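tokens incoming
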């Protein structure tokens, strides 16, 4: 099988800055033309992680701040508690990390997190962000999973949530200090909830999902009716209800927990960020930074292999500075390309970074064990290439680098594993 790369018309949901990269999934097309790359730094900027800086992490704040700096991530997501705002300002001033703040304070009482939203506290929430962490704010997100957290104390919760989002959006957009911050839709946990809340386009700049894929690979075709659990299913049956106008989507929670092995997570998580970006999800926040069940860090702060993998991926592809217009690259893949995914990136230096991986299961969800996936023999051809370096993430997050042998005509023979392989190419 041969994949020749060319531009094509995107479906509306994925017509974002990632559009050129999405073309790389297509099978052979007649009259192939060069493909425009996506900024490597834009991909790095899409990588986020959830934190609980003002609560669960407060006793280990200094250590966790150091780990965030080591990870190299630029975006975190947290609540807008005053102490969280103070920590967000610290993260920004010392590490350049910006925070997406979750809105939605409650009326209080027993199990406050389950109590109804308090619309009268919106002014206070926005004021805390402005006064304590305005420079650190990347976005303002609607209430978190209110369909799950609201109980019988708010039987008409969809109306409450819509009312909160409408008022919060209006106040933020009317404030000169906040009006340019993207307003993210509230997260919900079921198709039924998305149907109940309905169209929020008038009150959001971005739609929102919590796209967990259980113990399946990031590009899973799904494991239920109509592809339930897959990215296309989520876009069609959830996001389309929240944003019929097809506004860009953020996945403000996603990732894997200890139901798979640490090796499995180290393989899947870099692929998750790449696959989400490739399919048009603008920013994705792994849940979460630290914790025995979900954390990139164990409870004692020691890094899991997935932490190492993401740290190495960011270090390889980051390219901060004034953005430039990406160029194009004409190339094709041949050989065993059936499950090979490709993401074309470029740095401001002009170097291309072709990210490749096999989008196959690396973990058996039934037998609960790691799978040994043989690499796919693939030939990469691009006559314009003069020099190349091969970077490969191992199954425990380590990055190995070697010089590529390029044959006449720009041909490179590759073995593509289920971990990310990155071709760094110079014309």
């Amino acid at each position: 099988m041969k994949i020749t790369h060319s531009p094509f018309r995107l479906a509306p949901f994925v017509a974002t800055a990632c559009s050129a990269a999405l073309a790389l999934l297509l099978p052979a097309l007649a009259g192939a033309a060069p493909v425009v790359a996506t900024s490597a730094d834009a991909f790095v900027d899409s990588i986020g992680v959830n934190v609980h800086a003002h609560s669960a992490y407060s006793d280990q704040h200094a250590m966790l701040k150091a780990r965030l700096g080591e990870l190299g991530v630029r975006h975190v997501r947290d609540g807008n508690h005053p102490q969280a705002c103070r920590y967000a300002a610290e993260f920004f001033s010392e590490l350049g990390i910006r925070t997406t703040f979750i809105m939605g304070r409650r009326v209080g009482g027993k199990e406050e997190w389950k109590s109804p939203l308090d619309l009268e506290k919106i002014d206070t929430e926005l004021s805390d962000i402005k006064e304590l962490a305005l420079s650190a704010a990347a976005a303002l997100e609607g209430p978190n999973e209110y369909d799950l957290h609201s109980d019988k104390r708010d039987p008409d919760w969809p109306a409450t949530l819509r009312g909160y989002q409408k008022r919060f959006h209006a106040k933020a957009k009317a404030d000169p200090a906040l009006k340019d911050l993207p307003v993210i839709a509230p997260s919900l946990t079921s198709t039924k909830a998305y149907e109940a809340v309905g169209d929020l386009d008038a009150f959001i700049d971005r739609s929102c999902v919590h796209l967990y894929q259980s113990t399946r690979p990031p590009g899973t075709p799904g494991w239920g009716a109509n592809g339930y659990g897959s990215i296309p299913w989520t876009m069609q049956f959830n996001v389309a209800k929240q944003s019929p106008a097809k506004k860009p989507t953020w996945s403000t929670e996603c990732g894997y927990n200890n139901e798979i092995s640490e090796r499995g997570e180290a393989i899947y998580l870099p692929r998750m960020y790449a696959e989400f970006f490739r399919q048009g999800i603008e920013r994705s926040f792994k849940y979460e930074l630290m914790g025995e069940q979900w954390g990139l860090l164990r409870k004692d702060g020691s890094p899991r292999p997935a932490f190492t993998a993401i740290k190495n991926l960011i270090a390889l592809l980051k390219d901060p500075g004034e953005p430039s217009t990406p160029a194009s690259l004409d190339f094709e893949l041949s050989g065993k390309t059936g499950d090979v995914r490709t993401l074309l990136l470029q740095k401001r230096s002009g170097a291309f970074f072709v990210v490749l991986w096999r989008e196959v299961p690396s973990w058996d969800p039934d037998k609960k064990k790691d799978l040994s996936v043989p690499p796919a023999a693939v030939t990469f051809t691009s006559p314009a290439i003069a020099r190349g370096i091969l970077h490969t993430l191992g199954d425990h997050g380590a990055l190995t680098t070697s010089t590529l042998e390029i044959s006449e005509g720009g041909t490179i023979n590759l073995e593509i594993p289920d971990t990310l392989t990155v071709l760094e190419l110079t014309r």
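note: The longest strand covers residues 340-346.
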